[in-house]
Amino acid sequence: xxxxxxxxxxxxxxxxxxxxxxxxxxxxxxxxxxxxxxxxxxxxxxxxxxxxxxxxxxxxxxxxxxxxxxxxxxxxxxxxxxxxxxxxxxxxxxxxxxxxxxxxxxxxxxxxxxxxxxxxxxxxxxxxxxxxxxxxxxxxxxxxxxxxxxxxxxxxxxxxxxxxxxxxxxxxxxxxxxxxxxxxxxxxxxxxxxxxxxxxxxxxxxxxxxxxxxx
Length: 215
Prior knowledge:
Layout (H helix, E strand, L loop, with lengths): L9 H29 L12 E3 L5 E3 L9 E7 L10 H11 L2 H4 L4 E6 L3 H11 L6 E3 L5 H4 L13 E7 L2 E7 L19 H6 L15
């Protein structure tokens, strides 16, 4: 269907049509990458049933986080025990997901873990208004170190992991390893799930040097 908008010039329409062809190609590439991701062979079996802590300081083994689902996504929030506050970038990402949890929960389980105490995470959840986000403390477990949420020197890293469960146990499925790939920009490893950057990419000024702040 031919498309035109009020008072646009011929130069605009020519350039826009060229961009549209590129956008269409990008859409096809995104679908292809998603298909390659779904076709991954089974990942490594989870070495132990990592025990997280709820915000009430009760034990919460990883296996219980699946609920009624066979898949579980876990985001590692950068908020270590010695940090004064959570990472603003992580917080902006989780702001965008907070309102989507009830929709995600129809297809998959989702959790957020951080290398901090249940008490400090409970305070953060209240401050940020993350009423729907399931937060857990990873203190005392090796999960963060094993699944790239913490570097060897103890730095916290913003990583998203996906696990799958079947009759043979729990296996790793995918990790946002793009974080570790060299780039001239921000790693953009979870941008597909981040509304803020996607909206800014649609504007004339783009992302620029914008950095979100912790509310």
